[in-house]
Amino acid sequence: MKKIYQSYVEIAFPPTCVCCGISTSSEDRFICSLCRTNRFEIVGDEQNDILPSTVKFVNTMWNFDKGGYLQDLLHKLKYHHLRGVGLELGYLMGTNFLHRHSQEELDGIHEAKPLIMPVPLHRSKKRKRGYNQARALGEGVAKSTGWEILKPGVIERIKKTKTQTGLNLKQRSENLRGVFRVTDSQPLKGRFPIIVDDVFTTGATTFELARVIHNLNEQSSGIMTVAKA
Ligand SMILES: [Zn+2]
Question: Which CATH entry fits the domain spanning 41-228: 1.10.8, 3.40.50, 1.10.20, 1.25.40?
């Protein structure tokens, strides 16, 4: 019965790409193959320009397209409670990461016991949006890489921040001081933190989280995001 209903739904409402709106062939894919593989510009390997000492690498998948499909997709991901889309994008991020690293590098990361840490949302924002899109992305990354993901609640966002728009990195960093709190340092011990977020702009947010984590056990973090603004 469920199957008949499902095919009815597919005829009446054929699945469409959440990103560009064209119909997708496979029933469990939210993003069409064109958007997944060809629509967006892959970020080159020159992405590790100037990083703080607490950050080992930044791996962003696509260049942000202001006013384009990707901006729209990430906006929907944030505000429309699209967990499945987050999982799919996260899965792509993980695959993208595996493709750009040698087996030797990946073995090194594996030995360092990677632990995926989605950038937490403030409680009130999570309540409003219904979920944390960074966690959905992190779960997708976990699926394609096989790395473990930190359970929710270990790192909290305890301060709401004013808008970061128009601020430079230094001002943003000051704005973010004291935003994150680690409630239990035990799960982080001896692990290689992989911070996951949707967009990398100046890096202020992920750098602040890396700083807080470094203060605990002196580990440096890796950062992975969908897009680079
Ligand atoms: Zn599409």
Answer: 3.40.50
